[in-house]
Write a structure and sequence with these properties.
By secondary structure, the protein is mainly α. The protein has one domain. Helices cover 32% and strands 8% of the residues. The chain is built from 3 helices and 2 strands, in the order βααβα. It is globular.
Length: 80
Amino acid sequence: MKEQAFSNITEFASWRSLNCDICGKDWNGKPEDNDECDIEEELAWALIDDGKVEEGLLKRANILPYDGKLKRCSEFVEEG
């Protein structure tokens, strides 16, 4: 079942800055270069679609269960 990932683009940008921007799996927006993180790719594509992604992906991203706080993605990898 698909769920709404974020309520707005600002919420996504905040989550992304806490996670993707400093993660070793960071996706640079080019599909051919994304062999690392399907979470970031799916969330980004959802923004230009209906904003919804599979519930399982949201759990992997540590977005669900939602408690009003941004959390580190469960698949976060330290850069380096």
